[in-house]
Amino acid sequence: MILLFPQNPLMRKLPESIFESEFDAAQSLGLKCLLFAEELISLEGIDHALKRLPEGNGDEILYRGWIFREEVYRQFHDALLARGHRLVSSPAQYAEVTYFPNYYPKIRDCSPEAVWTDKPDAYSAWSASRKLGDGPFVLKDHIKSAKHLWHDACFVPKGSGRENFERIAENLQNEQGKSFNRGFVVKQYVPLRSRGPGPREYPLCEEYRLFFWKRKLLVASHYHDQSAQPVDWEPFEKVAERFDAPFFSMDVGQTEGGDWIVVDMGAGECSSLPPSLPAAEFYGKLIESLSIRASDTP
Fold first, then answer.
1. Nearest to residue 114, comparing CAs of 133, 92, 94, 93?
2. Which residue among 139, 169, 188 closes a domain?
3. How many other C-beta atoms lie within 10 A of the C-beta of residue 80?
4. For the segment 222-247, what is each residue's pLDDT rounded down to a tens digit?
């Protein structure tokens, strides 16, 4: 397995600093790691970004880096394929677990009610939210929220009027800027079991990030820097079987009433490791999974 990370724009032989621990851990475990100039994609195009990448021989390559829009990922996929590298996830598989309207129908039965718009219009989002009642709500775009601005650009209290709803929605759009994706998602807010006060605005809850590889649970780790509790993940492993994507994350949480729900999902390529999950453990689990699959091949 080859891994592909964004390079540090100032030191091209190193990965971007945020991915250094993953790069180092993967290499120390024997995985081959390559770098590309992600920063050039928007400036000079995909071909320039991949200019220094060596030719491949058709083997799979796993991207770990920033979120790409669907159309950019498709260009990325095709350009890598032309260079002999086959991304683990096809463009359709990537989009399946990246965009909320794509994955929500497959998790509807175990996730809070939600509606969305296909354009970044705050009034349209407000109008759509009326189908869910009077709140409280959580807002995001089709890919990401702004949980770090929980009160100003994410959480809409119960009984908020149109003016306050639109203010929070517009704050979200302004915070995302050019990275705002497609339209608004309005989700019914379901309180999760508290694990105490958090260092940021987002509540510290009983929440876990699950990574799935080839539809099997790869690893589960607390979303925050908290000790893990014993949890039966089998129900979510069954949910994971509904997806075609080979690599994705699923954030799940325990409600105040004790039920477990799917909070969010994302492409595994762009899902950050939670602070409770060391990079060496993550890549160790990946190598273990690759070895098991290899031994199962006749």
1. 133
2. 188
3. 20
4. 998 888 889 999 999 999 999 999 99
